[in-house]
Amino acid sequence: MTSILTYIRDQASRGLNPTSLKAPMRRDLVVYIDGGKAFVDNLLDQDPQEVKVGFDTSPTFNGGGDREGTFELTMQLGGHRVRTQRVRATVEPDFGGECYRFPLQSGAESMPSIDSLLDLRLPLHIRLVKREKHGGNPTLIACQEFEWRKVLVHGKLQVSIPLKGVGNLKGPAGLLEIRLEIRPLRLPAIKESVEEKGEEGKMGIMLPVFVPETSVEKQIEHEQRVEAGVLRRFFAYAKAWWREYSQVRPSHRHRLVRLFARSSDGSQGFVTTFLNPIQAPRMLDSSLHAARFVTLIPKIPEISLVGAGIDAGAWRGSQTHMALRGGTQSDKALLLTSLLLGFGLDAYVCIGIRNRDDRGKNKTEKDIQPPEAMVVITRVTRATVCIWEPVTGRRGQLDAKSGWTPITQASSNWSCPLESVHCVFNHQQLYANLQPIDKCDACNWDLGDQTKWKAFSQEAIQVLPRFPGVVLLPYSGDRLEQEAKLEMNLKELVAQHRKDELKVDTIWSDSLAYMLTPALAAYEAERCTKTTYGNPEFQQAIKRNIPVGHVFKAVPFCFNHRNPRRMFTAFLGLQGKSVSKGTGFPSAVDILKSKGDSIRFALRVRVFKYPEDICAVWAILAVKYRDVD
Predict the structure, then answer these.
(1) What sign results for the dihedral spanned by CA atoms 282, 288, 294, 295?
(2) Strand, coil or helix: what is 157?
(3) What percent of the chain stands above pLDDT 90?
(4) What is the DSSP annotation of 183-227?
């Protein structure tokens, strides 16, 4: 009621008529996370002398974890998703009784009845992720779908949810203790009530019954029977469809026409059910920004998943991908396709054989790519497609007449990532390549041509239960505060390095640092939209403010993290080209070793925000001095 009155007063202050306002007609599922129990995998990591604690507010918490590592919980119900604060990963993690509200049928003209919520089949999706104290790749601990509709019986429910473990952990990873409530809630006028017994057999309070428990059970059982029948008929059709395709030519049996895939929780699903159009209003401005966002998400190598006991061929799905904030190339391809579908493009996941040049040329053993490739395509015309590489964000157009054409000048030497094409699919369609020659440069991309592509039934796909899409969360940090803190930390590291190595002091120029800001904005725009701007003005400003006889050097860096020590390590490791030869950037080591008269250093950091606390951090280190040698 307080929030409604506040809203009315706020509208009245804007000159609106408060009497014309209506209270929001919706019911909410309120979830209280009381804590966890029996997370025994953390027993060896916990110091027996330490007491159990809740929120970690130490200065190094966000920079690399704590003693035991941390747990982070994400939950999604329908179109609403939340992420908890990180807590210490102990046997009994304390989430501090955090409370979250999930709207149920919001935006209705009238308040939905309790009985109508019984038909709302939207499970509560839970993901538990552990982040280690020394950094490294995050670990998915548990995936769980919780049936919340049992709360409709009394309007309140307290339950311990056994979280389903993943990977080598076959049993429950632990118990999550939560309380559920439906709000707003009024006592039923005629419904029956039941008595709850207290301690020692004494009668307790009278619990109202809003929906009979038998009605809830029958509804859930009915839905399970209907789904089982749908899947049974679908599997029969899929088997017959594959038999027809494989009998067209013997070579079709060996093509990578993938119909089913395993998810991170071990369940199998048809490949189209892993895709859902995803929109991120006010967070991603265009499809190019979506591609940039996907490339910034840290890539988790397949080998680390095998070590964690997770099938390297498993698709994690968009919710798990965002809970981990990291994924494999297949995860990135699925996410990028969903985002492009959300922007209205005719996007597909494309599976085939990777180009030999892209597989292992000039690469170390750990960087060599597997032969199977998953990229994203968008159809430009019936004969032309645009291929998006989900890890690097590079794009190029391909058709049978013109061949491969990189879209940007920066990718002019980039060859097509595919050698052959075997199948394409999105959330509604799947097509298998029927052409006798499956080479990418000779492929006919007219998916409507039944002599070139074998289509899967759209009607059969539409009735399948789907893996849930993800609701992206906005960037939660204060960008200006993060930039100032990073600059301060990096300046301290630079000054200390010069003190230790050269025995000299470091003097900073704020005015020079300010003039470097346009360059960072231009660099990010170029990475995102592949267009540049402002370079002539930047060059003019530098030339005008660098005195005659002075030397100016600068080198930019781009990171997808905010760890200053890792950034400084990159400073020391970058091997650039000398600007004295006019062939590129100097190395940061050259700048750090600079000596001369009237020497001034400058450092500018810019944080560019993306959803899910993903960011592009640009830093530029510069120096100007009079060369006296």
Answers:
(1) negative
(2) strand
(3) 61
(4) ES----SS--EEEEE-GGG-EEEEEE-SS-HHHHHHHHHHHHHHH
* 587 dihedral zone (left: phi>0; alpha: psi -120 to 50; beta): beta
The helix (H) or strand (E) run that includes residue 242 is helix 213-246
- Stretch (H or E) spanning 176: strand 172-183
Sign of CA dihedral 103, 107, 111, 114: negative
Half-sphere exposure of 7 (CA within 13 A, CB side): 10
10-20 residue pLDDT tens: 444 444 443 33
- In sequence order, which residues have a C-beta less than 8 Å from that of residue 591 and are 6 or more positions away? 553, 554, 555, 601, 621, 622, 623
Q: Are 551 and 596 in contact (CB under 8 A)?
A: yes
pLDDT of 582 higher than 60 = no
Residue 515: left (phi > 0), alpha (psi -120 to 50), or beta? Answer: alpha
Q: What are 51's two structure tokens?
A: 């007491």
CB 472, CB 342: distance < 8 Å: no
Least confident range from 111-115, 480-484, 495-499: namely 111-115
Contact 360, 331 (CB under 8 A): no
Q: Is 97 helix (H, G, I), strand (E, B) or coil?
A: coil
List helix spans (H) across 276-316. 287-296, 302-307
Q: What is the CB-side half-sphere exposure of residue 178 using CA atoms within 13 A?
A: 24
Vertex 177: Cα angle to 173 and 179 (nearest 5): 145
Burial of 127 (0-12, 13-18, 19+ CB in 10 A): buried
- Cα separation, 285 vs 473, in Å, equals 15
Structure tokens at 365: 């053993």
* Average pLDDT of the residues of the chain: 83
Instruction: Give the strand pairing for 203-208 and 260-262.
Output: unpaired
Report how far residue 504's alpha carbon sits from residue 38's, in angstroms, rounded to the nearest whole number: 55
With a cut of 70, say whether residue 188 has pLDDT above it: no
Signed CA dihedral, 312, 318, 323, 325: sign only: positive
Phi, psi of 130 (to 5 degrees): -110, 130
Read off the tokens for 551: 């030397």
3-state secondary structure string across 364-391: CHHHCCCCEEEEEEEECCCCEEEEECCC
The interaxial angle of helices 329-342 and 317-324, nearest 10 deg, is: 110
Closest to 590 (Cα-Cα) out of 543, 553, 558, 626: 553
Task: Check if the beta carbon of residue 69 is closer than 8 Å to that of residue 132.
Answer: yes
| Whole-number pLDDT of residue 195 | 52
